[in-house]
Amino acid sequence: MTTTTGSWPAGFVLNDRVEGPSAEIVEGFRSIPTANISDAIGRVTGAVGLVSYGGPQIMAGPAVTVRVRPGDNLMIHKSLDLVRPGDVLVIDAGASISQAVIGGNMRMMMIQRGLSGVIVDGAIRDVAEFLEGGLPTLAKGVNHRGPAKDGPGEINVPISCAGMAVLPGDIVVGDQDGAVVVPRAEAKAILAAARAVVDHELELRAVLDAGTIQHGRFDSILRSKGCPV
Fold this sequence. Notes:
Blueprint: E1 12-14, H1 23-29, H2 34-40, E2 51-52, E3 59-68, H3 74-79, E4 88-92, E5 100-102, H4 104-112, E6 117-124, H5 127-130, E7 137-142, E8 153-155, E9 159-161, E10 164-166, E11 171-175, E12 178-182, H6 187-210, H7 219-224
Parallel strand pairs: 1-8, 3-4, 4-6, 5-6, 6-7
Antiparallel strand pairs: 2-7, 3-8, 3-11, 9-10, 11-12
Helix pairs in contact: 2-6
Protein backbone atom coordinates (compact mmCIF):
# COMPACT_ATOMS: atom_id res chain seq x y z
CA MET A 1 0.00 0.00 0.00
CA THR A 2 1.34 3.44 -0.91
CA THR A 3 0.59 6.85 0.40
CA THR A 4 0.43 8.59 -2.97
CA THR A 5 -3.36 8.79 -3.16
CA GLY A 6 -5.54 11.86 -2.98
CA SER A 7 -4.42 15.28 -4.10
CA TRP A 8 -0.66 14.80 -4.15
CA PRO A 9 0.77 17.20 -6.76
CA ALA A 10 2.81 16.10 -9.74
CA GLY A 11 6.42 15.37 -8.88
CA PHE A 12 5.74 14.19 -5.32
CA VAL A 13 5.71 10.44 -4.64
CA LEU A 14 5.76 8.76 -1.24
CA ASN A 15 5.79 4.96 -1.34
CA ASP A 16 6.01 2.60 1.58
CA ARG A 17 9.36 1.15 2.61
CA VAL A 18 10.16 -2.13 0.81
CA GLU A 19 11.41 -5.03 2.91
CA GLY A 20 14.86 -6.23 1.95
CA PRO A 21 16.34 -9.73 2.20
CA SER A 22 16.64 -11.48 5.56
CA ALA A 23 18.73 -9.94 8.32
CA GLU A 24 21.11 -12.91 8.08
CA ILE A 25 21.85 -12.22 4.41
CA VAL A 26 22.29 -8.49 5.00
CA GLU A 27 24.66 -9.18 7.88
CA GLY A 28 26.71 -11.45 5.63
CA PHE A 29 27.54 -8.55 3.34
CA ARG A 30 28.80 -6.32 6.18
CA SER A 31 32.17 -8.07 6.23
CA ILE A 32 32.74 -8.22 2.46
CA PRO A 33 34.53 -5.35 0.66
CA THR A 34 32.78 -3.82 -2.32
CA ALA A 35 35.67 -4.87 -4.57
CA ASN A 36 34.99 -8.54 -3.84
CA ILE A 37 31.26 -8.13 -4.41
CA SER A 38 32.00 -6.32 -7.67
CA ASP A 39 34.15 -9.25 -8.80
CA ALA A 40 31.38 -11.66 -7.89
CA ILE A 41 28.81 -9.84 -10.04
CA GLY A 42 31.05 -9.44 -13.07
CA ARG A 43 32.38 -5.91 -12.45
CA VAL A 44 29.61 -4.42 -14.57
CA THR A 45 27.63 -2.39 -12.05
CA GLY A 46 28.35 -0.01 -9.23
CA ALA A 47 28.51 3.65 -8.35
CA VAL A 48 31.07 5.84 -10.09
CA GLY A 49 32.68 9.07 -8.93
CA LEU A 50 31.75 8.99 -5.24
CA VAL A 51 34.08 9.96 -2.39
CA SER A 52 34.06 8.44 1.09
CA TYR A 53 33.54 10.93 3.91
CA GLY A 54 32.35 8.74 6.77
CA GLY A 55 35.28 6.57 7.81
CA PRO A 56 36.41 3.03 6.96
CA GLN A 57 33.32 1.13 8.10
CA ILE A 58 31.35 -0.92 5.56
CA MET A 59 27.73 0.10 5.12
CA ALA A 60 25.33 -2.65 4.12
CA GLY A 61 21.56 -2.67 4.27
CA PRO A 62 18.28 -2.50 2.40
CA ALA A 63 17.94 0.60 0.24
CA VAL A 64 15.49 3.36 0.99
CA THR A 65 15.64 5.46 -2.17
CA VAL A 66 15.03 9.16 -2.65
CA ARG A 67 15.00 11.26 -5.81
CA VAL A 68 15.14 15.02 -5.33
CA ARG A 69 15.51 18.13 -7.40
CA PRO A 70 19.15 19.25 -7.35
CA GLY A 71 19.73 21.47 -4.33
CA ASP A 72 16.50 20.55 -2.52
CA ASN A 73 16.16 18.20 0.47
CA LEU A 74 12.50 18.39 1.49
CA MET A 75 11.80 14.76 0.63
CA ILE A 76 15.09 13.60 2.15
CA HIS A 77 13.80 14.94 5.46
CA LYS A 78 10.51 13.09 4.90
CA SER A 79 12.33 9.85 4.11
CA LEU A 80 13.74 9.80 7.63
CA ASP A 81 10.21 9.10 8.87
CA LEU A 82 10.27 5.81 6.95
CA VAL A 83 13.76 4.41 7.54
CA ARG A 84 14.55 1.64 9.99
CA PRO A 85 17.81 0.82 11.77
CA GLY A 86 20.25 -0.81 9.36
CA ASP A 87 18.84 0.78 6.20
CA VAL A 88 21.00 2.58 3.65
CA LEU A 89 19.57 5.86 2.39
CA VAL A 90 20.37 6.24 -1.31
CA ILE A 91 19.79 9.71 -2.75
CA ASP A 92 19.61 10.68 -6.41
CA ALA A 93 20.25 14.43 -6.34
CA GLY A 94 20.91 14.66 -10.05
CA ALA A 95 24.71 14.46 -9.62
CA SER A 96 24.67 18.20 -8.93
CA ILE A 97 27.18 19.67 -6.49
CA SER A 98 25.87 23.23 -6.84
CA GLN A 99 24.25 22.98 -3.38
CA ALA A 100 24.55 20.49 -0.54
CA VAL A 101 21.47 18.39 0.17
CA ILE A 102 22.57 17.04 3.56
CA GLY A 103 24.77 18.43 6.32
CA GLY A 104 25.68 18.06 9.95
CA ASN A 105 22.17 18.30 11.40
CA MET A 106 20.81 15.65 9.06
CA ARG A 107 23.84 13.49 9.82
CA MET A 108 22.84 13.53 13.48
CA MET A 109 19.25 12.59 12.60
CA MET A 110 20.48 9.71 10.46
CA ILE A 111 22.73 8.43 13.24
CA GLN A 112 19.83 8.64 15.69
CA ARG A 113 17.68 6.58 13.33
CA GLY A 114 20.37 3.92 13.10
CA LEU A 115 21.12 4.11 9.40
CA SER A 116 23.87 1.83 8.17
CA GLY A 117 25.00 4.58 5.82
CA VAL A 118 24.02 7.20 3.26
CA ILE A 119 24.94 7.59 -0.42
CA VAL A 120 24.40 10.93 -2.16
CA ASP A 121 24.70 11.49 -5.90
CA GLY A 122 25.16 15.15 -5.04
CA ALA A 123 26.89 17.31 -2.47
CA ILE A 124 27.15 17.32 1.31
CA ARG A 125 28.43 19.99 3.70
CA ASP A 126 29.79 20.17 7.26
CA VAL A 127 32.38 17.62 6.16
CA ALA A 128 34.36 17.85 9.40
CA GLU A 129 31.38 16.34 11.21
CA PHE A 130 31.05 13.49 8.73
CA LEU A 131 34.75 12.74 9.10
CA GLU A 132 34.19 12.11 12.81
CA GLY A 133 32.67 8.77 11.80
CA GLY A 134 29.48 7.17 13.01
CA LEU A 135 27.76 7.34 9.63
CA PRO A 136 29.47 5.79 6.60
CA THR A 137 28.90 8.33 3.82
CA LEU A 138 29.59 8.44 0.10
CA ALA A 139 28.92 11.61 -1.89
CA LYS A 140 29.69 13.21 -5.22
CA GLY A 141 31.29 16.28 -3.65
CA VAL A 142 31.13 19.09 -1.13
CA ASN A 143 29.54 22.54 -1.16
CA HIS A 144 28.97 24.93 1.74
CA ARG A 145 25.81 26.30 0.08
CA GLY A 146 22.78 24.78 1.76
CA PRO A 147 19.60 23.36 0.22
CA ALA A 148 16.07 24.59 -0.32
CA LYS A 149 13.06 22.74 1.08
CA ASP A 150 10.50 23.20 -1.67
CA GLY A 151 10.35 19.84 -3.42
CA PRO A 152 9.33 18.04 -5.47
CA GLY A 153 10.75 14.62 -4.78
CA GLU A 154 10.07 10.89 -4.72
CA ILE A 155 10.63 8.29 -2.02
CA ASN A 156 11.00 4.54 -2.57
CA VAL A 157 11.03 4.59 -6.35
CA PRO A 158 13.60 3.13 -8.76
CA ILE A 159 16.53 5.53 -9.04
CA SER A 160 19.92 5.93 -10.66
CA CYS A 161 22.63 6.93 -8.19
CA ALA A 162 26.05 7.71 -9.68
CA GLY A 163 25.37 5.27 -12.50
CA MET A 164 24.05 2.56 -10.16
CA ALA A 165 20.45 1.39 -10.67
CA VAL A 166 18.80 0.90 -7.29
CA LEU A 167 15.36 -0.47 -6.43
CA PRO A 168 13.85 -0.02 -2.98
CA GLY A 169 14.75 -3.04 -0.85
CA ASP A 170 17.89 -3.96 -2.80
CA ILE A 171 20.97 -4.44 -0.63
CA VAL A 172 23.45 -1.61 -1.04
CA VAL A 173 27.03 -2.08 0.16
CA GLY A 174 29.48 0.81 0.39
CA ASP A 175 33.01 1.39 1.65
CA GLN A 176 36.00 3.56 0.81
CA ASP A 177 36.19 2.03 -2.68
CA GLY A 178 32.63 3.04 -3.58
CA ALA A 179 29.28 1.28 -3.64
CA VAL A 180 27.59 -1.70 -5.29
CA VAL A 181 24.00 -2.81 -5.38
CA VAL A 182 22.86 -6.39 -4.82
CA PRO A 183 19.42 -7.02 -6.34
CA ARG A 184 17.07 -8.23 -3.64
CA ALA A 185 16.00 -11.36 -5.53
CA GLU A 186 19.61 -12.44 -6.13
CA ALA A 187 21.09 -11.59 -2.75
CA LYS A 188 21.55 -15.13 -1.45
CA ALA A 189 23.36 -16.35 -4.57
CA ILE A 190 25.52 -13.24 -4.79
CA LEU A 191 26.50 -13.57 -1.12
CA ALA A 192 27.75 -17.10 -1.77
CA ALA A 193 29.67 -15.96 -4.86
CA ALA A 194 31.21 -13.03 -2.98
CA ARG A 195 32.33 -15.30 -0.15
CA ALA A 196 34.02 -17.53 -2.74
CA VAL A 197 35.87 -14.48 -4.09
CA VAL A 198 37.01 -13.62 -0.56
CA ASP A 199 38.30 -17.19 -0.06
CA HIS A 200 40.19 -17.05 -3.38
CA GLU A 201 41.75 -13.70 -2.42
CA LEU A 202 42.90 -15.14 0.90
CA GLU A 203 44.51 -18.09 -0.88
CA LEU A 204 46.31 -15.75 -3.29
CA ARG A 205 47.45 -13.53 -0.42
CA ALA A 206 48.96 -16.57 1.32
CA VAL A 207 50.92 -17.40 -1.84
CA LEU A 208 52.13 -13.80 -2.09
CA ASP A 209 53.11 -13.74 1.57
CA ALA A 210 55.11 -16.93 1.09
CA GLY A 211 56.89 -15.51 -1.96
CA THR A 212 56.04 -18.59 -4.04
CA ILE A 213 54.04 -17.00 -6.86
CA GLN A 214 55.21 -18.32 -10.23
CA HIS A 215 56.65 -16.10 -12.94
CA GLY A 216 54.97 -16.36 -16.30
CA ARG A 217 51.62 -17.41 -14.90
CA PHE A 218 49.83 -15.21 -17.45
CA ASP A 219 51.81 -16.47 -20.43
CA SER A 220 49.00 -18.76 -21.59
CA ILE A 221 46.68 -15.75 -21.87
CA LEU A 222 49.30 -13.80 -23.80
CA ARG A 223 49.86 -16.74 -26.17
CA SER A 224 46.12 -17.00 -26.80
CA LYS A 225 46.26 -13.40 -28.01
CA GLY A 226 49.14 -14.12 -30.39
CA CYS A 227 52.01 -12.88 -28.24
CA PRO A 228 55.27 -14.86 -28.77
CA VAL A 229 56.06 -15.72 -25.16
